[in-house]
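Preliminary data (for renewal application), S-adenosyl-L-homocysteine complex.
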Amino acid sequence: MDKNFEEEQFTGIIKFTPPLYKQRYQFVKDLVRKYKPKKVADLGCADCTLLWMLKFCSCIEVLAGLDTCANVMKEKMHRLSPLPVDYLQPSERSLTVTLLHGSVAHKDPCMLGFDLVTCIELIEHLEESELKKFPEVVFGFMAPSIVVISTPNSEFNPLLPGVALFRDPDHKFEWSRVQFQSWALEAARRYGYSVEFTGVGHPPTGMENVGFCTQIGVFVRKYPQTTEFTQSEKPTEAVYKTVFKAVYPSLKDEKYLWNAVVGEVIFTAQIIKRSLLDRLLPQHKEYNDDLPERKSEFRPQVKCFSEDLERLLAEKSTKPFVNGNMVYIPLATVFSFPKVNQLCGTLEKLRQLIAGEVVLSSDGSAVVFNIEHENEEN
Ligand code: SAH
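Predicted structure:
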């Protein structure tokens, strides 16, 4: 795990490369890569930078941020909104991002069902009374599969210039490794988690005894949650206030899937049609590559290379063909293209999604193009 942080350099004045906060976020991203959680909550999310980074992790379908300071969350929350490209090319996965105003000292049912809960540099900002409630809320109530908690390691402070008592005036405490680990082990024991300790921000050579600048505990729930516990002990009253919610366009939503499939089918069928006409009608290709004045010379002299159109359609031939001014691209051929195949899954689903949107042959087995006016328009 620590391999990522080996770039850190000691130059007399402590300077981390990459910066320490980035190393913490990268640590979380590595955890996400390892455990592939679908639902992730960041407690004490501040300006949502970590959430913004996590929205690019393709396994995540639900992202939630919680903070007691609504203003800091709102500062850059626009970064969590979908971009035009998300609408132009909706993703396979669904993604909902929610920002909640509230405290980790309170339970809210919207925090149930998460796989990973991150608390990056949060606990040292908690008042004593809040810190007391924190384990019961996070491990007892939210009870995600994994919890990651980071906090300053006070043993490193003498190496940081200008740090008299705490690294930040809002810190209520800073713990040594023993203090953090005994608190974490007690919480883990009480709520059925195992915990491993690590950190980011390597100490300089020769000073390894102080430990990482940021200490981290990764808690993994030992037992699967029982539904009995979930139902009997979880309160239902909502106390957090939603300050932001974004539902990303996704192909899981039928309306976006439909749009993508219709576009892809027309695009694919056009490509097949073009290559068929280029093959059958060399003058067509020439025309297409040639000067505008030659346009009028072209008249599609297309011939049916099937003797019996009805028979072909009935057999659902997978070969595209031309009959007079009509080009027939069997749906099975279109379906065999990977992108269409991937989007629809089955030929039946493909039929269902393009019904009424793409012109089909009378028996519904082929996409039909009328090329009579096509070249005149060109
Ligand atoms: N996780 C962020 C921010 C750390 S600063 C990062 O890594 O950069 C701590 C944040 O916790 C602040 O934004 C603060 O407003 C928030 N916070 C403080 N007390 C809290 C509480 N009781 N519940 C939720 N958030 C709290």
